Amino acid sequence: MALVNFTHHGLSMCPVLIPEDIILVETDHGAIQLGDIVLFKDNECGDYVAHRVVALEPLTTKGDNSPFDELIKSDYVLGIVVGRIRAGRPLNWGFKGTRFKSSKARLSRLYHKKYTRVFRGLFKLLSRLI
User: Fold this and answer.
1) Cα separation values, 122 from 69, 100, 104, 115, Å
2) How remote is the C-alpha of 15 from its chain's centroid?
3) How far apart are CA 40 and CA 35, in angstroms?
4) Which of 28, 53, 59, 117 might form a disulfide with 2, Cβ 3.0–4.6 angstroms?
5) Model confidence pLDDT, tens digit, residues 37-96
6) Residue 76: domain span
7) Domain count of the fold of the chain
């Protein structure tokens, strides 16, 4: 297993990932599954982005805190996020294989501004259970 560290920027994955979290990315990963958080390079802006996989065919990702889906090519995926370090404390939650990840992916697809507070609270609760 090859792990690479990246500093996370942006708010699209709050509260699971917040700015300045160090994310642990498994680059030697197997098949991507629904609910995995993947790190990929956005060809439009050139930035690295960590988003949750909400559909496999075609490969579609979405930030938990974002209303927009994004279609990506599997070639753009650098790896699967398997943990984070926040304020010096590591948390290897196993985004890969967690029993809630497919539920989180489905809930993320239902995101709507009207339900922002409800979903944020639900994501916080689910994140604590992981």
Assistant:
1) 19, 12, 9, 11
2) 11
3) 15
4) 28
5) 999 998 888 899 999 999 999 999 999 888 889 999 999 999 999 999 999 988 876 544
6) 3-129
7) 1
Contact 108, 64 (CB under 8 A): yes
Pairwise CA distance, residues 29 & 81, whole Å: 10
More confident: 40 or 101: 40
* Average of per-residue pLDDT across 28-36: 88
By the 10 Å C-beta count (0-12 exposed, 13-18 middle, 19+ buried), 34 is classed as middle
Backbone CA torsion sign across 19, 122, 55, 66: negative
d(CA 77, CA 49): 9
d(CA 2, CA 129): 26
Only one residue has tokens 């984070």, namely: 84
The domain that contains 27 carries what CATH number? 2.10.109.10
